[in-house]
Automatic annotation (TrEMBL):
Residues 82-153 form the Tc1-like transposase DDE domain. It comes from the Eukaryota. It holds the Pfam family DDE_3. The lineage of its organism: Eukaryota, Metazoa, Spiralia, Lophotrochozoa, Mollusca. SUPFAM superfamilies: Homeodomain-like. This is Tc1-like transposase DDE domain-containing protein. GO terms for molecular function: nucleic acid binding. InterPro entries: Homeodomain-like_sf (IPR009057), RNaseH_sf (IPR036397), Tc1-like_DDE_dom (IPR038717). It comes from Littorina saxatilis. Gene3D superfamilies: Ribonuclease H-like superfamily/Ribonuclease H (3.30.420.10).
Length: 202
């Protein structure tokens, strides 16, 4: 068996960026020539600790490197300017005062600038403990979108066709599929509590 490829800090940062852009873990693994389990563990560690580098064996390491800090800052700005301001806030305001933003503890989502923006926009935000299970049904939506896009042949030669396919397939996801994901939240929480926060069928 060939030795397992070790990801550099740059590769880990690229992987997290792709994951936050909605790329499935198995696709990220293919791009970096590693097993999907490597990417899944990286995602779990990043969301739980905010680190992309491997934990040091001894001593008291710094939580992030300067490169990590720059990456988090860039992602926080992107999250606010390209997602929150033009998309999320208007959608929540259209729903009404009972709407709740369910994001996660990813460092770009919890930066001071993003938190200030959300507070000023009067958005109700769900609070998560530091090591919380990922209950967000959007993960299943990303998987469905990935399956739909992968049915297109040949693969896109550049970003333009890919964006068109993503928009087309996103609009084509049946409303019933989305409603089922939303309505599954109660059972997700029940199973999460029953398993003490550990793995569930979701």
């Amino acid at each position: 068996m060939p030795p397992r490829r070790k990801l550099s800090d740059l590769d880990r940062g690229r992987a997290i960026g792709w994951l936050q852009d909605g790329v499935a873990a198995r696709q990220v693994a293919q791009r970096l020539a590693v097993a999907p389990s490597v990417i899944i563990r990286l995602k779990q560690r990043f969301y739980a600790t905010g680190r992309v580098q491997e934990r040091q064996r001894s001593g008291r390491p710094r939580d992030t490197t300067p490169r990590d800090d720059r990456f988090i800052q860039r992602q926080a700005v992107r999250y606010q300017n390209k997602i929150l301001q033009p998309l999320v806030v208007p959608a929540l305001q259209a729903i009404g005062p009972r709407a709740i933003l369910q994001d996660d503890n990813a460092p770009p989502h919890r930066s001071a600038a993003v938190s200030t923006f959300i507070q000023q926009a009067r958005v109700n935000r769900m609070l998560w403990p530091a090591n919380s299970p990922d209950l967000n049904p959007i993960e299943h939506m990303w998987d469905e979108l990935c399956r739909r896009v992968q049915q297109h042949h040949p693969p896109p030669a550049n970003l333009g066709p890919l964006l068109q396919w993503l928009q087309q397939e996103w609009n084509g996801v049946p409303r019933a599929f989305i409603c089922n994901l939303i309505h599954s939240m109660r059972q997700r929480c029940v199973e999460c509590l029953a398993h003490n926060g550990k793995h569930t069928r979701y």
